[in-house]
Write a structure and sequence with these properties.
The protein is α/β, with parallel strands linked by helices and 744 residues long. Helices cover 31% and strands 18% of the residues. The strands form 7 sheets. Strands 11-16-15-14-12-13 form a 6-stranded mixed beta sheet, with helices on both faces. The protein has a 5-stranded parallel beta sheet with strand order 4-3-2-1-10. A 5-stranded mixed beta sheet has the order 18-26-25-20-21. Strand 2, helix 5 and strand 3 form a beta-alpha-beta unit.
Length: 744
């Protein structure tokens, strides 16, 4: 009897509304609660604040924020991690009049305690199951630390690697980006409401990746057809996956800041797409509309943002201090505020926070999930899958485990935290120098007792000091093979990390040249968060692995690939330029009226007179330690109507001596359209594992959807005509071709 009374008391403490929870639908419960709320309490639900001192140690709650939480004037907090601290804040919310629980959000971009490869690197795996699993583990760890909501995935299409946030997305291609967006949302959200799932937040809506000059937060100017065909589809894919929330973007789109853009948020997202979740601003972006120059102060910014469909204000205080007055003055309809509040409350109900506001605050589960050895094992596998083999002359790789002396040289060899990449979560209680496997430690773990590892730093990441070159050359001369690890610092790619020059910093390329001059075979590891320009290395080094930033298990994964325990299979999700002068550069461009017929003809054609048009490495490119043969293409029919499908099959054979994975890619080209069409477009792909000598028959299906595009009237439609069908290993390595015709 005593136990029953305790349970009943706990229920009553959450508010009388909860007693009848099982008798009402969520919408009914939301409406019932809304009727009890004052205008200030409603506005409070639209208000999100950051926590204090989250990254550096114990949290001391700001007295003003404490009072506001107790007053029901804050709906969400971010940058508070750990069950101890989230519970501390939630207990304050339970002292408010209506006891509406807080939502805790966090930037969990590529892992929580277990850091996975940066998203652009994961995209290089072209492995949707692995990408979904990565997000699932991140959700399990984050939710175990009291987090309800992650500000991921970022699905912005970007064609300009000067923009630092390319590291956070899936690259330049709309089809690949849409598939990855869907997978990441599914991974994060699982069965929403389970304690091992979190709400996802797809961002940034929309066009952020097309910032002029690749400069972060800059303007975006594009046609409506480009918007619908290239930049919106990954967001629609996330919505189709059931994403709970959207985040708008910092940029203006065609002169209207996205935060205050009714066309994007009301007409498309909540109108045409019928999105039922809520929209959160990016950090301070509502108030920043004053800087854009389309409102004069934060009051006008609040009016524009709520009217346009921004439901929650992250850290600008524009709603907190202005909405009530705007309602009283008749400038904002209370129905707009009610709609935003209901969207937020609905998610809190779906998460089960009204039944148990502390359901995510279980220290035992936190300890279990954050120390799960299986997570590291999976992180190692995904990291290996993300490494791109760019060059391998004379089959220098994989290395023999019998090699006697290896010189491991470079400024990144013994680094730990650098491997985390940008936008990684740093928990104050974790010693990352011990937790993360450095590249040096990875090789130590791999080689046998008969192999000697030699080390020299050579140089710093930045600067022009070459004093370490002599030692590096001496060490290299003592070895049988040289591995050199160079690249960016992890904080050179990410938000607010735009670079006008995307060359390898400092004198690192010169270090590689000095090592090559020894005559020793050299393997180059390039660590970065974006495509870089490294022509001298690309042209002269015999073996190159693009290792991005791979996370917790970076060292072990790199060693797995170097010694052939994992055969590299990754393919580039972005085009690598020869020079910054080519930017933006992307594979699926239009042909123009004067296309260059070859790389040498430059007179009165669309070409540079001082540089080739072609990239250094094309979209979809990546080598393997084995070889694959494509053969016996069969197409069920060459002429179809738009109600019919074409089935395609071909044989894929592993003709080398190693088992391996091949990402087979299906491309199409619409030869003639009422609006010009790209010279080539990715329409499907499959990742296939084959043992040495094995053959598999691969099938694709082409239907109306794959042949459709947006016409001049922005109608998603097909047009009769011929289509080039192309199957290959990359966008520039087409192995099989055919032609199909769509009839009237």
């Amino acid at each position: 009897m005593k136990h029953k009374l305790i349970v009943l008391g706990a229920i009553l403490a959450l508010g009388t509304e909860v007693v009848f929870a099982q008798q009402k639908t969520i919408d009914q419960r939301v409406e019932s609660l809304l009727k009890q709320m004052t205008l200030q309490e409603k506005i409070g639900q639209l208000n999100q604040y950051t926590g204090d001192n989250q990254a550096t140690g114990p949290i001391t709650i700001n007295p003003n924020k404490e009072a506001e939480i107790k007053g029901g004037l804050i709906g969400s907090m971010l940058n508070i991690v750990g069950t101890k601290y989230t519970r501390q804040y939630q207990e304050l919310a339970m002292q408010s009049r209506l006891k509406i629980p807080l939502l805790f959000g966090q930037d969990v971009i590529h892992g929580y305690k277990t850091t996975f490869p940066i998203p652009l690197a994961e995209a290089a795996s072209w492995d949707l199951e692995a990408i979904e699993l990565s997000a699932r583990i991140a959700a399990q760890e984050a939710s175990a630390s009291g987090i309800h909501w992650v500000f991921a995935p970022m699905v912005d299409i970007s064609r300009d690697p000067r923009w630092g946030r390319v590291m956070e997305g899936a690259g330049e291609d709309t089809y690949l980006g849409s598939k990855i967006a869907f997978a990441r949302v599914k991974g994060f959200q699982g069965n929403l409401g389970d304690t091992n799932s979190v709400m996802a937040c797809v961002k940034h809506f929309v066009g952020y990746g097309a910032a002029v000059g690749g400069r972060d937060y800059n303007s975006v100017d594009m046609s409506d057809r480009m918007l619908w065909e290239t930049y919106l589809p990954p967001f629609k894919a996330a919505l189709d996956a059931g994403v709970a929330t959207f985040m708008n973007s910092f940029n203006d789109l065609n002169g209207v800041p996205a935060t205050g853009n009714k066309f994007l948020q009301r007409d498309i997202l909540k109108g045409k797409w019928n999105f039922k979740g809520f929209v959160v601003s990016d950090w301070g972006s509502i108030g920043e509309m004053v800087n854009h120059g389309n409102v004069k102060d934060s009051k006008e910014a609040a009016q524009l943002a709520i009217t346009a469909g921004s439901d929650m204000d992250m850290e600008s205080n524009s709603y907190r201090y202005n909405l009530a007055q705007l309602v009283q003055e008749g400038k904002v309809d209370i129905a707009l505020i009610d709609d935003a509040v209901k969207r937020i409350l609905r998610k809190k109900f779906e998460l089960g926070l009204f039944e148990d506001p502390y359901k995510y605050s279980n220290p035992k589960r936190e300890d279990k999930e954050l120390n799960n050895p299986m997570h590291r094992k999976i992180a190692r596998d995904i990291a290996a899958k993300s490494i791109v083999l760019l060059k391998n002359e004379k089959q220098l790789l994989p290395l023999s485990k019998d090699v006697k002396k290896i010189a491991f040289i470079g400024p990144l060899v013994k680094e730990h935290k650098q491997n985390m990449g940008f936008w990684s979560v740093e928990l104050p209680e974790v010693d990352y120098d011990k937790y993360i496997v450095s590249q040096w430690e990875g090789l130590q773990n791999k080689v046998g007792k008969n192999t000697q590892l030699l080390y020299a730093k050579g140089c710093e990441i930045e600067g022009d000091n070459k004093d370490g070159f002599a030692e590096a050359v001496t060490v290299a001369n003592q070895a049988d093979i040289v591995i050199v690890s160079i690249g960016e610092r992890r904080d050179m790619s990410g938000e607010a990390k735009s670079r006008s020059s995307i060359r390898i910093p400092g004198v690192q390329e010169e270090l590689v040249q000095a090592l090559q001059a020894t005559g020793k075979p050299v393997v180059v590891l390039i660590n970065a968060g974006r495509p870089l320009v490294f022509n001298k290395i690309a042209d002269t080094a015999p073996a190159i692995l693009y290792t991005w930033w791979l996370g917790t298990e970076a060292g072990n994964a790199i060693a797995d690939v170097l010694f052939g325990d994992y055969n590299p299979s990754a393919k580039l999700p972005m085009t690598f330029p020869r020079d910054e002068g080519q930017l933006p550069i992307y594979y699926n461009h239009f042909n123009t009226g004067r296309p260059a017929p070859n790389e040498t003809t430059t007179n009165y054609v669309s070409a540079y007179i001082d540089l080739k048009n072609s990239p250094k490495y094309p979209f979809g490119y990546g080598l393997s330690y084995t070889t694959f043969q494509y053969s016996d293409l069969k197409v069920t029919k060459n002429k179809i109507t738009d109600s019919e499908k074409v089935e395609i099959s071909f044989n894929l054979t592993n003709t080398g001596k190693y088992a391996g994975d091949e990402v087979v890619q299906l491309y199409l080209r619409d030869r003639v359209g009422s609006v010009v069409r790209p010279i080539i477009e990715l329409k499907d792909f499959k990742k296939i594992h084959l043992n040495a000598g094995e053959t598999m028959n691969i099938q694709f299906v082409i239907d109306k959807e794959k042949l459709s595009f947006y016409n001049e009237k922005l109608e998603w439609t097909t047009e009769p005509g011929e289509f080039d069908l192309m199957i290959g290993s990359s966008s520039s390595d087409i192995r099989l071709r055919s032609v199909i015709e769509l009839l009237k």
